[in-house]
Design brief:
- By secondary structure, this protein is of the alpha/beta class.
- The chain folds into 2 domains: 145 residues, 3-Layer(aba) Sandwich (Rossmann fold), CATH 3.40.50.300; 66 residues, no CATH class.
- Helix content is 39%, strand content 24%.
- The chain has 9 helices and 10 strands.
- The chain has a 6-stranded mixed β-sheet with strand order 6-7-8-3-9-10. Strands 2-1-4-5 form a 4-stranded antiparallel β-sheet, with no helix packed on it.
- A hairpin with a 2-residue loop joins strand 4 and strand 5.
- Helix 4 packs across helix 5.
- Bound molecules: adenosine-5'-triphosphate (ATP) and magnesium ion.
Length: 252
């Protein structure tokens, strides 16, 4: 379980999180929605200790992240796949090596086993084998995003954090990613958090949705509860997103 408890985080005078609390239970995929700059990425960076709380806490499997030793933090990170908002691939390394990197660092598998895992992960995100030999610069943005996901799932993590996995992708590629996230949850039992601007994706992949607003959770509930929310701020947000999506998609 991942639990945020009254998390506060400011950068200078910019108070981003102001009492953010949320629980993500085993087997769930919780979507975090909210306006750009509202602190969604900041919130999940606390889960892997990339940021430290000013006040409040984040627990993963009962361990408080902010107080772990370096070694404990590495052990914790081994359980968590992180798909960064901007794919964050190493430009000078092949796709294969980018996906293999975490596995090599863990040092638990033979070369053959690593090969197999990378192949399996690339197949899961619908990338052909020949992609492994390419450099990130030779791939489209959507393909790079999928490599970022492959890198996370190659570790067979207990948790996956997806930061905007479908943003900027065409509808077909987005649907592939949505299916993949569902499969991770339903077949592999991975617990997930997905930050998304894409309400269709949120409705498809999540068990619950939380809206972050002014540093706190404005509302959290099932897909149905959010779709039928009577909270004016939630309504305004999802109706605004729907308009944007209608403009962005081809006429039916
Ligand atoms: N390392 C940092 N140093 C200073 N300010 C930061 C840092 N990281 C984030 N911020 C600020 O915190 C606020 C929230 O940023 P965050 O990236 O979490 O937004 P977001 O909700 O993920 O937005 P988007 O939907 O655009 O990705 C922004 O005002 C941002 O400028
Ligand atoms: Mg973000």
């Amino acid at each position: 379980m991942i639990r945020f408890d009254n998390l506060h985080k400011a950068f200078g005078t910019n108070e981003v999180l102001r009492g953010f609390s949320l629980e993500v239970d085993e087997g769930e995929t919780v979507a975090i929605i909210g306006y750009s700059g509202s602190g969604k990425s900041v919130a999940i960076k606390h889960i892997v200790g990339l940021l430290e709380p000013d006040a409040g806490s984040v627990h993963v499997d009962g361990q408080e992240v902010g107080v772990l030793s370096r070694r404990e933090l590495y052990a914790l990170r081994a359980k968590i796949g992180y798909v960064f908002q901007f794919a964050a691939l190493f430009d000078s390394l092949s796709i294969f090596e980018n996906v293999a990197m975490g596995l090599r660092k863990q040092g638990l598998l033979t070369d053959d086993e690593i090969h197999e895992r990378v192949h399996e992960a690339l197949t899961l995100v619908d990338l052909e084998d020949d992609v492994g030999g390419k450099l990130p610069s030779e791939l489209s943005g959507g393909m790079r995003k999928r490599v970022g996901i492959a890198r996370a799932i190659a570790l067979r993590p207990k948790y996956i954090l997806y930061d905007e996995p479908t943003t900027g992708l065409d509808p077909v590629t987005s649907a592939i990613i949505d299916r993949l996230m569902l499969r991770m949850q339903k077949q592999l039992g991975v617990t997930g958090i997905v930050i998304t601007h894409d309400m269709r994706s949120a409705y498809t992949v999540s068990t619950r949705i939380a809206m972050l607003y002014e540093g706190r959770v404005q509302q959290v509930g099932t897909v149905d509860a959010i779709q039928h929310s009577t909270d004016p701020l939630v309504r305004q947000f999802i109706e605004g997103r729907a308009e944007l999506q209608d403009v962005g998609s081809p006429a039916a």
